[in-house]
Amino acid sequence: MTRYQHLATLLAERIEQGLYRSGERLPSVRSLSSEHGVSISTVQQAYHILEDSQLISPQPRSGYFVTQRKAQPPVPQLTRPVQRPVEITQWDAVLEQLIAREECDVVAFGSGAPDVTQPTIKPLWRELSRIAQHQEAELLGYDSVYGMRTLREQISRLMLDSGCVATAEDILITNGCHEALSIAIRAVCEPGDIVAVESPSFHGTMQMLRAFGIKVVEIPTDSVTGISVEALELALEQWPIKAVILVSNCNNPLGFIMPEARKRAVLNLAQRFDIAIIEDDVYGELAYEYPRPMTIKSLDLDGRVLLCSSFSKTLAPGLRVGWIVPGRYLDRALHMKYIVTGSTSTFAQMAVAEFIRNGNYHRHLRRMRQHYQRNLDVFTCRVRQYFPCGICVSRPQGGFMMWVELPENIDIVPVCCALREQNIHIAVGSLLSASGKYRNCLRLNYALPVDASIEAALRKTGEALSYVLENA
Amino acid sequence: MTRYQHLATLLAERIEQGLYRSGERLPSVRSLSSEHGVSISTVQQAYHILEDSQLISPQPRSGYFVTQRKAQPPVPQLTRPVQRPVEITQWDAVLEQLIAREECDVVAFGSGAPDVTQPTIKPLWRELSRIAQHQEAELLGYDSVYGMRTLREQISRLMLDSGCVATAEDILITNGCHEALSIAIRAVCEPGDIVAVESPSFHGTMQMLRAFGIKVVEIPTDSVTGISVEALELALEQWPIKAVILVSNCNNPLGFIMPEARKRAVLNLAQRFDIAIIEDDVYGELAYEYPRPMTIKSLDLDGRVLLCSSFSKTLAPGLRVGWIVPGRYLDRALHMKYIVTGSTSTFAQMAVAEFIRNGNYHRHLRRMRQHYQRNLDVFTCRVRQYFPCGICVSRPQGGFMMWVELPENIDIVPVCCALREQNIHIAVGSLLSASGKYRNCLRLNYALPVDASIEAALRKTGEALSYVLENA
After folding, report:
1. Which segments constitute the HTH gntR-type domain (chains A, B) (predicted)?
2. What are the φ and ψ backbone dihedral angles of A313, each rounded to 5 degrees?
3. Which residue of A has its CA nearest to B313?
């Protein structure tokens, strides 16, 4: 970091902390220069950076002032979903969402895709190239139904970072976290069963439940601390629930990391009511805190947690490489893996294994965590700037998803349609609810670096939301 | 083909046709030389080839004689499975089979793997290398739930060879034929339903049916003409059957190609009883006849046939690239694809698409058809030589699977165990029956070129079968 970048960061922090208040005049260039023992031009460059990020603005012949800004919007309250088992619908809306992501030149705020353009991903291409040049005939043959041992060994090591001890024998490789979740649900549930889910929760998982003829009870969930343990307990007392499905770290869509005490409380409940926990950790390695948060799986002594994950969010979804650690359900999971796809593409598995083995994965993770955290700052700033007052916004602790909530009487489905005509694609919250709630919410993907088109799209989205709020 | 190879082939044909009978003296080298207008040494070389393949044997000072041979074993009779819906078991045996295929230095007669060592597969590696070098970020992102358009377009063209007109929009890419079948079954059936299958039939499909809680009625099947239309009709009259699953071309395990009239008859029955047909065409392009046989799908006007296929048998199973043409079940199949794996590995899809586009796939297919047909000749010869009298052997019309049947009172499960200790792995027929029939049968994979170890393994298998027959 250069001197002027360092100074800019320092000043930005002071502004964030309120040491310089909104509208207040900042120290003169000369006084800052002597205070910090840096040159005049260094201070000027620092002020230019802050000006570019719209934290400060110059006034002719008066110096720099902290920009008049709206206050940070509050976080969403605890959700209040329907408190009984419901059937999942919404497939048509999900399909529309999937098709929208394939359109060209669309700003895909609604997608679940990570940024795959960072330079630290380059070694993955080199591994693929090397594999193609080596021409090992073995890679063309049927892989083990467990997946390649070399990759399972690498994953076993990775999992230690989350406090989880799993050997290569405990791990099955899957076609992304999608297949892992599909296997987990099928390994634990029968058609007609009931499972508990966070509310809101990932639409993909809910569509799986729908296809398997499973009903869900949506549990109230806090945007900072996660699923309500009290509400989960009540639901477990009331309904014959088979399993609870959680994204405990860097939740999709709310962004929270469940505090350790809450993770333990949920595990205790699962033990008391003898149910399984399906833990989706696909965003866990993208937590902004270091070391990464632990999983519920790492606390699990009796094998009731089925951990599902993949390299789709951390590395690249096109690889379709994920895994499941099914605990005591290993035999059933193995059968499911066999009947669903038989095995997983060997090339992608091999490339990922080598990418990890050569230290490139951890390097890439560091980069991506920084990148997403920086993007979150920029998006938060823009949302504050462009989006209307009266909204609530989540404070993601990892990953690249933001949840925006408007007053409950607002329906943003028409806003989505209007924005789509301007090639802006947002995901309406109701996709993430079994009972079609959260039509006043939206999920915002902030994975991509903010360029002019994203900047413009955020502004247009803010305008559309303001319009609907003013005319409600 | 050189002159002496041509002559050897001609003579071998005459022996097969019975123009020269077992034990009969062949024409002298001199007379053949003048008859065919070739040199003495050409005839001598041709005779050496026939001697090497044990068709003829020299007797000192008397010339060459047609080898005294056992007669070609008869083909298996129409199977007679249980005529009522049964639940499928056998998972433990299938799993054992899957694990056996991973062992080192095993002669895997029991596997379903193709030969991936032929030189015509090399361009596939080059495509993979080229893709890795181009580094298109798009390949790292989420693929369409339909699969890559460029591959679907190529498949659409390939399907014309089987008389089937399907556009890219009618095709979904899957993780191998396995996922295609899994999707097809789930798109058509609900738990508790009944489907009709050939008997014997592919154990993978049956395990899927088991996992989905579906019962099967096994229909008597002829090793030359396929499923009995009469028996299928009776079953349809008697039970509320939802679908029939067929490997109509180069059947696994019996090797037949259903005659066109029978394909039409089955389709007519499906129309009359308003059921779906799930057609597994994964071996169809490996038919020894040219042009390749048509599919039932190509006759299907009302979209009731779900065609499932892949590049796993024709190219390489490690790719995990297959497809489904689900006809009128497209919407349901799309949902199933989404909930099972979401999408398919992009690298493998891209490599296959380019491999086809550059004409390498058709070149490879020609090579593999010839290779498997030649291997069939060698295996048939060895089976005749080493295996005991009193067995029946199928006459595969494509693919690389042979079905061997011993008398019904014989149980070859202990033979399998004994052979496995000698690193020879055969698949007992009962794996391919829902009701555990065919313990007197085995399926033999003849994909690999016959080398010394395969030769020895065939001999040992023959000895073990002879032993059990003699001691029955």
Report:
1. 1-69
2. -95, -35
3. A141
